[in-house]
Amino acid sequence: MIELGIPPLILQQALQLVALHFRYTVLHTNTIAAKLYNLRCKFRCSNSNPQHTIENRIAKAHSTLMISSTYPGTPSMPHSVTLAKPKNKGKSYTTFLKPIVSAEWLRQIRLKYPHAPLPPSGNVSSRLHAHFPLHHLSLCNNLYKLPPYLTMCGHRNPMSLLRLWSQSHQSIPTHMLTIADNQRDAYDSRVCLYCPSGVTGSEIHLILECPATSHVALDLIKLLTSFLYVTCQPDWSTLTTHQQTSLILGDPPSTLPKKFHHVWLQSTLPAILDYVFRLETFLYNMT
Ligand SMILES: [Zn+2]
After folding, report:
1. How many whole angstroms from 281 Cα to the centroid of ligand 1?
2. Which residue among 8, 234, 247, 252 is buried most deeply as judged by most CB within 10 Å?
């Protein structure tokens, strides 16, 4: 859901309910629905309404998004909404709410993974957990937006790259959930199919370390090394395997200023998509 910019349902609903409150109290105050709503709001605390009435759900949505300062009165309007033409005000208010939803979504992720967006320490214990050491920087963006690797480059279909990012590629052992002895297997026990010694088959292993598959990345690594050099970033050999894998999968270097991210991605994405295609073909042919 992070990859596709789709917030959890509870936050998406909260956004819609808060926007509905805006319509009832600012935009369409003369409709019957709005008058009924305002009337019901007045008696909300004094009666024993069921929890799922619209006024109770809207009140809860305001506290979910932590914007209850003016509720149940008229919501405070940001400048962009005040300036918008009357017919665009509703849309403009929703646009204003999106970064608030994104911030709350990020707060919830950080509660669950205390170190995000910094890489979590300790052993990776699950697929979701494995996402953050590689792609923790994507959590600094507006989560509502599609990541650039999905939209910026029409060179190849980015679906395979999306599968790698979302930890759901069928050729990566740690992405596959298997059941052993009626119990879900541990992340560490999903081993590489090509190494005899039982190494965990994570994307880091298959991309950089596995003797059977790591050679596929050599050309791309050469290209990334030269890009790191010309942009005065730390040398490829000084990066951790997490950082190297994250570059191979299309993250800009963490040390590169944000204003250069677009150029970095524009220059590297075609080669990255080509690499993912080659790796995938190679893995499919091996099995
Ligand atoms: Zn291996």
Report:
1. 16
2. 247
Q: Could you tell me the pTM of the whole model?
A: 0.73
Residue 195 has a pLDDT of 87
CA of 209 to the centre of ligand 1 (A): 7
* Mean pLDDT along residues 160-166: 86
Of the CA atoms within 13 Å of residue 271, those in its CB half-sphere come to: 18
DSSP code at position 221: H
DSSP secondary structure, 163-179, as one string: HHHTT--TTSGGGS--E
Separation of 105 CA from ligand 1 center, angstroms? 36
Taking each helix axis as running N to C, give the angle between helix 32-42 and helix 54-64, from 0 to 180 degrees, rounded to the nearest 10: 70
Q: How far is the CA of 237 from the centre of ligand 1 (A)?
A: 21
- Within 8 A by CB and 6+ apart from 205, the residues are 192, 195, 199
Round to whole Å and give the CA distance between 175 and 178: 10
